[in-house]
Amino acid sequence: MREPEHPVVLPSDQDASGRTLGDEEIAFLTAAIQSGTLTSTKGEFVNTLQEQWAAKLGLPYAYACSSGTSAIHTAVAAIDPEPGDEIVTSPITDMGAITPILYQGAIPVFADVDPRTANVTAETLEPCLSERTKAIIVTHLFGNPCEMGPIMALAKRYDVPVIEDCAQAYLARCAGQLVGTFGDIGCFSLQQGKHITTGEGGLVVARDAALARRMRLFINKAWGYGDAEPDHYFLALNSRMNELQGAVAVAQLPKLDLSVGNRIAAATALTERLGELPGITLPYMRAGDVHVYWKYDVRVNAAIVPGGTVALAQQLKARGIASAPRYIQKPAFMCEVFQKQRTFGNSRYPFTLARPQALAYGRDRFPGAFGALDEILVLPWNERYTETHVAYLADSLRQAVAKLSESKVG
Question: How many whole angstroms separate alpha carbon 240 and alpha carbon 66?
Answer without folding.
Answer: 5
